Amino acid sequence: MQETNLHAKGKVLFLNKDYISEFVYGGIDGAITTFAVVAGAEGASLGITVVIILGIANLIADGFSMSVGNFFSTKAERDLYEKHKQVEYWEIENLREKEIDEIREIYAAKGFHGELLEQVVEVIIADKEVWVDTMMKEELEMVKDDKTPFKTAGVTFFSFLLVGSVPLLSYFFAGTTEASDQQLFLYSCILTAIALALVGNLKSMVTERNVFMGIFETVALGGLAAILAYFVGDILENFLL
C-alpha cells in the first residue's frame, strides 16, 4: 500500500519515478568506480590522503563525464524523434493518400476490417497530431521521451556524487578516530555494500526483477570490481614502488 501511494504521487522516496533509472545507474557507477579507486589505492598502500584525493578526483571527473554523455544521448534521441516527426508532417501534407493507405494497413493488420476499419482511419486522419503520433508509434516504433537532457544529466551527476561519496566517508572522518588503514577500508567496504544494496533495490523497481536478485547482482558487481582493483594496486606497488 505504501509503495502504491508513493507511485501515485509520481515519486519513489524523494525522486521523480521517471528519473529512477538515471539515479540508479549513476549511483551504481559512482559507488563502484569510487570504491575501485579506494580499493586500488589501499592495495598499493598509498595512504589516506592519496585515497581521498583520488576518490574526489574520480567523483568529479567521472561524474561529470557520465552526466555529459547522458545529456548528449538524451538530446540525440529527442532530436531524432523531432526530425522524423517533421518528416511525417511533410508526408501527410504532400503524400496524403499514401499515408492514409499506411494507416489503413496498420489497423488492418491489427484485425480491423470493413466499415469499422474505415471509421478508425477517418478518426485518426481527422486530427494531424493524432495522425502523426500514430505514424510515429506504429510505423517507426518511436515514442517521445518527456525527460529533458538537463534533468537526466543532473540526476545522473547528483546520484554519482551522492552514492559515489559513500566509499570515502570513513576516510573523511579518519582524523576523528584512531582506526588503522585496514579498519578504515573495512568500514568503507561495509558502507559501500549498504549503499549498493539500497541502489540495487531501486534497480529492481526499474527492471521489475526480483529484489533480492537485484541487490545481489549490484553488490556482487561492486565487490568484484573492488577485488580486481585491490590486487592490481598491490601488484603495481610491488613492481613500481
TrEMBL record:
Transmembrane keyword on record: yes
Subcellular location(s) per record: Endomembrane system
Source species, domain of life: Bacteria
UniProtKB keywords: Membrane, Transmembrane, Transmembrane helix
Pfam families according to UniProt: VIT1
Membrane-spanning parts: 43-61, 152-172, 184-202, 214-233
Keyword DNA damage: no
PANTHER family: FE(2+)/MN(2+) TRANSPORTER PCL1 (PTHR31851)
Protein name: VIT1/CCC1 transporter family protein
Species this chain originates from: Autumnicola tepida
